[in-house]
Recover the amino acids of this structure.
């Protein structure tokens, strides 16, 4: 869709508004319903390698520009599917995050991030504990 948009910046802004909760949304009767809708949209979009890269890089750049120096992502550290459809490795995923961190550090040297490998809240407690112990710097 973006490739066919005449105004790519306008398209990006439209997409961002569709997956964000802003001050105007605070008055909604049930903001958590909106949060769940947005979370679902973002989860689907994150499967697209190009979106994932730009979204996460821009998120980290935005945080760093607001003087946030340290971010922890609690996430599933699983292999990503590449743009060509091939499945990567866990090492590829970790390298992806390290590249994001390094790109942000070029503009904001004090910035750092940490990945904390996690699993579903429905996982058995012993599995959750084991995954939380596998923190990747």
């Amino acid at each position: 869709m973006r490739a066919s948009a005449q105004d790519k910046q306008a398209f990006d802004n439209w997409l961002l508004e569709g997956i964000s909760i802003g001050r105007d949304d605070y008055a909604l009767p049930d903001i958590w319903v909106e949060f769940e809708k947005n979370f679902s949209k973002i989860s689907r979009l994150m499967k697209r390698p190009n979106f994932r890269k730009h979204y996460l890089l821009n998120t980290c750049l935005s945080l760093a520009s607001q003087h946030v120096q340290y971010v922890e992502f609690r996430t599933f550290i699983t292999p990503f599917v590449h743009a060509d459809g091939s499945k990567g490795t866990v090492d590829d995923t970790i390298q992806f995050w390290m590249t994001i961190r390094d790109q942000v550090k070029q503009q904001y040297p004090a910035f750092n991030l940490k990945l904390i490998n996690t699993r579903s809240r429905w996982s058995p407690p012993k599995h959750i504990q084991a995954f939380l112990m596998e923190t990747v710097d």
About this structure: The beta strands are 70-75, 112-117, 135-136. Helices lie at 8-18, 31-45, 49-65, 90-107, 125-132.
